[in-house]
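anyone else get weird line breaks when pasting these?? whatever heres mine. first is seq + tokens for prot A
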Amino acid sequence: MLTEGMLVLDKTLMGVIELDPKEILVDGIRKELGKTLATMFHEGFIFSKKGPNEIENIEQKFLMIKDKFTGLKRSIEYIQDFLNI
């Protein structure tokens, strides 16, 4: 139903400004993706002082970030297919 609704939406005029709902949606998705990535990096790359397991700790953090990126990639691909963008 959402896909059909997005495909039906046309550009509309709001006064003298032309609005494209699909473009507004894509811009909103980009903005949210940027916020999500910034939060992921901020929370994911907090390291403790060096210790005997520091290398393993760094590897775990990178693996966690990799898993989160994989999930985001799948989500973006799904949204692209769903909204035909």
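and prot B, same format (seq, then tokens)
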Amino acid sequence: MKYTAPMDNQRFAKLADELAERDPALALRLREAREAARELRDSAYGAVEAFRQRASEIGAPYLGNIEVSRVEPDEKHIDAVQFRIARGRFELLCIAIARGDGKMRIVGPFKRGKEEGPCAEAKLRGAEVESLLEERLAALVREATAV
């Protein structure tokens, strides 16, 4: 086995300092975006649970196979967090963007592996984003349960 010198940990500590200095206020804006995303996610989860419970009560529990993910870092951007709602191959993405005053982007529903879209944006919080997600969530459930 060949000996290799350890990596320079100090170099990476300095790199973290350098990258964090690009936008010192980003951590605070990301915290706000994460809180807004968690609130919206909890609202979506409540709607899915109501749907799942009713489907089970009427003898159609197979309709309730819908997953709502945790809020996690966005896959594409460092200044955003996201959560997913999925049923089979159909997905809906909710992305809280910390840029500027912040905004929520709702993407889908779309089939995983296909082009993502349609996209719509609203403020991080409020009736507009709640309504937008409600409509998109209903569309996801309808599309994903079509026979």
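btw re prot B: The beta strands are 67-68, 72-73, 80-87, 90-97, 103-111, 119-122. The helical segments are 9-20, 26-57, 127-144.
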